[in-house]
């Protein structure tokens, strides 16, 4: 057995098929992106090495890059400070011992499994000034003065997209937090009850601190998802109107595949990777400092 | 008494949230049975006066949703098969077999969990072009396998590490080789984590848009998300057929959800903890 398990041929047989596909279609491209980002290249003619010029252009010349950074930041802030607290409240609600809680959990979670394309197309129609249900609904409720072309107006477009992503993903965090809450032993709550801690007090002193690891995961996940936002913006507004909803992933896509700036697009991709890695590393550092032991 | 009112107000709150979550979907489903005049002129929440199936036939046949559906099925099944096979083989080698580069390979795979796929898009486009498979089914299947392998390997090795070795050793005593004992003994035991991985990969591939939009240029090879997007551009005024197409494309997910909702919850939480 031991001998067979260190037989090089068998090891290769088990590892190579998957590893080859992974290396060629995932790992090598990551390395190549870094290389492309130092080139001036349209994808057809030979590339010219230009050092860090793409990055200089990104940080100093290109105004829409900063617009994209700010918009990504908006997704990040909404994810962490609105979506996560709402998810936490939902998780508390569905972990109460009451009839039908599984039903509610399933209903709140279902949007998560639908594709972003589907959800986005659905909301494009909901926001549509002509056939959409939002304006009609608001008219019915006597809020006619507030109706508008939600996705077509620079003032409301970003907010409208943010509402959709929140609607789509609250159930995801809810589920992870719910799973964490199930892992907290019942005795803690019983002991707290004897000390007079029920309701909100129990949540504050037991659920919250004992969930800190899961909360950390949720924060990191939300941040990474926010920084990777692409589909919802691509489908709903394609970055418009006037770049008011553009994000970095979309900008990378447009630069490379519409404007044929493969070098500059690669620099944007590298920026995205570093942004994700650095922010999640920093978050992990900050959030693990205050570890609570019981 | 106080407890009772508190409980019922919590129920009301939960029902309001449930309505907020479900109402858009309800509107989608009823729109799929309505015609344009009913959608534009009628009440938002009213059921269709007559449950028309014409939107569905129009979407399925004229708007080629049948083709997109077929493409999605093929791409998803092929990807799923290879991810499950390769990931379980790799996970087995990485947890049970002894060799030097074990931790290096795990580290490289970890990059696949951390780095956003957006960063691979431009070079992948060139690689696929040079291989001459751009705009074929392979041009998305191969990247889909590569992208989903790491999470599969991680989920399966986490399970394998907790699994006792006795059964494999017994099989070995009986004269099974490693390969045979892997397929006869290990794979059947891996069923529960394989189901989790399968659900994860199914949803990821069935819903994927970015790579499909970049690598698939032939109309007849479009997958559902890509087809739907294009469809909405062409049918910008008639919402009914588009709604029908969207209902059709969500049916497999709904079915999977009804059948495996517990498994789905497990795979989502496991996937999240890994990231």
Automatic annotation (TrEMBL), chain A:
<feature type="transmembrane region" description="Helical">
    <location>
        <begin position="107"/>
        <end position="127"/>
    </location>
</feature>
<protein>
    <submittedName>
        <fullName>ABC transporter permease</fullName>
    </submittedName>
</protein>
<keyword id="KW-1133">Transmembrane helix</keyword>
<keyword id="KW-1003">Cell membrane</keyword>
<dbReference type="InterPro" id="IPR035906">
    <property type="entry name" value="MetI-like_sf"/>
</dbReference>
<feature type="domain" description="ABC transmembrane type-1">
    <location>
        <begin position="69"/>
        <end position="283"/>
    </location>
</feature>
<keyword id="KW-0813">Transport</keyword>
<feature type="transmembrane region" description="Helical">
    <location>
        <begin position="73"/>
        <end position="95"/>
    </location>
</feature>
<feature type="transmembrane region" description="Helical">
    <location>
        <begin position="262"/>
        <end position="283"/>
    </location>
</feature>
<feature type="transmembrane region" description="Helical">
    <location>
        <begin position="157"/>
        <end position="181"/>
    </location>
</feature>
<keyword id="KW-0812">Transmembrane</keyword>
<keyword id="KW-0472">Membrane</keyword>
<dbReference type="InterPro" id="IPR000515">
    <property type="entry name" value="MetI-like"/>
</dbReference>
<dbReference type="GO" id="GO:0005886">
    <property type="term" value="C:plasma membrane"/>
</dbReference>
<feature type="transmembrane region" description="Helical">
    <location>
        <begin position="202"/>
        <end position="227"/>
    </location>
</feature>
<dbReference type="GO" id="GO:0055085">
    <property type="term" value="P:transmembrane transport"/>
</dbReference>
<dbReference type="Pfam" id="PF00528">
    <property type="entry name" value="BPD_transp_1"/>
</dbReference>
<comment type="similarity">
    <text>Belongs to the binding-protein-dependent transport system permease family.</text>
</comment>
<dbReference type="InterPro" id="IPR051393">
    <property type="entry name" value="ABC_transporter_permease"/>
</dbReference>
<feature type="transmembrane region" description="Helical">
    <location>
        <begin position="12"/>
        <end position="38"/>
    </location>
</feature>
TrEMBL record, chain B:
<comment type="similarity">
    <text>Belongs to the binding-protein-dependent transport system permease family.</text>
</comment>
<dbReference type="GO" id="GO:0055085">
    <property type="term" value="P:transmembrane transport"/>
</dbReference>
<keyword id="KW-1003">Cell membrane</keyword>
<feature type="transmembrane region" description="Helical">
    <location>
        <begin position="12"/>
        <end position="33"/>
    </location>
</feature>
<keyword id="KW-0812">Transmembrane</keyword>
<dbReference type="InterPro" id="IPR000515">
    <property type="entry name" value="MetI-like"/>
</dbReference>
<feature type="transmembrane region" description="Helical">
    <location>
        <begin position="68"/>
        <end position="92"/>
    </location>
</feature>
<feature type="transmembrane region" description="Helical">
    <location>
        <begin position="104"/>
        <end position="128"/>
    </location>
</feature>
<dbReference type="InterPro" id="IPR035906">
    <property type="entry name" value="MetI-like_sf"/>
</dbReference>
<keyword id="KW-0472">Membrane</keyword>
<dbReference type="Pfam" id="PF00528">
    <property type="entry name" value="BPD_transp_1"/>
</dbReference>
<dbReference type="GO" id="GO:0005886">
    <property type="term" value="C:plasma membrane"/>
</dbReference>
<feature type="domain" description="ABC transmembrane type-1">
    <location>
        <begin position="69"/>
        <end position="260"/>
    </location>
</feature>
<protein>
    <submittedName>
        <fullName>Sugar ABC transporter permease</fullName>
    </submittedName>
</protein>
<keyword id="KW-0813">Transport</keyword>
<feature type="transmembrane region" description="Helical">
    <location>
        <begin position="236"/>
        <end position="260"/>
    </location>
</feature>
<feature type="transmembrane region" description="Helical">
    <location>
        <begin position="140"/>
        <end position="160"/>
    </location>
</feature>
<keyword id="KW-1133">Transmembrane helix</keyword>
